[in-house]
Design goal:
The protein is an alpha/beta fold and 253 residues long. It has one domain: Ribonuclease Z/Hydroxyacylglutathione hydrolase-like (Metallo-beta-lactamase, Chain A, 4-Layer Sandwich), CATH 3.60.15. It contains 7 helices and 15 strands. Strands 7, 8, 9, 10, 11, 12, 13 and 14 form an 8-stranded mixed β-sheet that branches. Helix 7 links the parallel strand 13 and strand 14.
Length: 253
């Protein structure tokens, strides 16, 4: 599996508008973060997890020419507002792009982007998608995908496991049953916003305790706020754990 971090920032993106802090003004390109999303290729299948606000720019920067399907974690603006840019892929591939999520996510997606699902005049550009609500493991074009139910505050959302990689962002609490779905990972990707506790996201200490419990071979933190400097935080993390950055590419066996 080839995996690309398209974006690694929180809902504000980094730099935050008008913020003079050391991370927002940093010359280090690894501190420049668009909203969080990943793109992966597995068995010839091209999958996107979330359509971040800057998806068009992310797709251009990473030369994405095909999207076979989209896995949505939840329907918050920073994770879905690139939805309209799926238009080009449906048009080019001459078929609707299947998009997956839990039932609340799919219902809200259809409401937020209602223009895409109602009959309109010919020539009105809109994304051609097929929405599919899932509540358990499924197979997409030969790729086995396991949704990981977690909580974003009180909101039930999904992470996803594909092979020995799992992507879990915007998580503050994980049911015991979901922990069992994360055994034996080579790569774990976790959303971690800051050092201090947060009501709807993991913080650094909480995430490290989870890593210690699950013991994946490698862990990457994403969905990072401007309170986490790339180099400074990386120096403090244990072996096998590091901050991701926009454009980072890794291979998962």
């Amino acid at each position: 599996m080839e995996l690309t971090f398209l974006g690694t920032g929180t809902s504000h993106g980094i730099p935050v508008i008008g913020c003079p802090c050391s991370v927002c003004t940093s010359p280090n390109p690894k501190n420049k973060r668009t909203r969080s999303s990943i793109f992966l290729k597995q068995q010839g299948v091209h999958l996107l997890i979330d359509t971040a606000t800057e998806f068009r720019l992310q797709a251009l920067a990473n030369q994405i020419e095909r999207v076979d399907g989209v896995l949505y974690t939840h329907c918050h603006a920073d994770h879905v507002f690139g939805f309209d840019d799926l238009r080009v892929f449906g048009y080019r591939q001459q078929q609707p792009v299947p998009v997956y999520g839990n039932e609340p996510t799919i219902g809200e997606l259809r409401s937020v982007f209602s223009y895409a699902f109602r009959k309109t005049q010919e020539g009105g550009g809109k994304p051609q998608v097929e929405t599919i609500a899932v509540d358990g493991p499924f197979v997409f074009q030969g790729v086995e995908i396991t949704p990981i139910p977690v909580f974003h505050g009180e909101l039930p959302i999904f992470g996803y496991r594909i092979g020995k990689m799992a992507y879990v962002t915007d998580c503050s609490r994980m049911p015991r049953e979901s922990l069992a779905l994360l055994d034996g990972l080579d790569v774990l990707i976790l959303g971690v916003v800051r050092y201090e506790p947060h009501s709807t996201h993991m913080h650094v200490e909480q995430a490290l305790k989870l890593v210690e419990r699950l013991r994946p071979k490698r862990t990457f933190f994403t969905h990072l706020s401007h309170l986490l400097d790339h180099d400074e935080v990386n120096r403090s993390l244990p072996p096998g754990v590091e901050l991701a950055f926009d454009g980072l590419r890794i291979t998962v066996d």
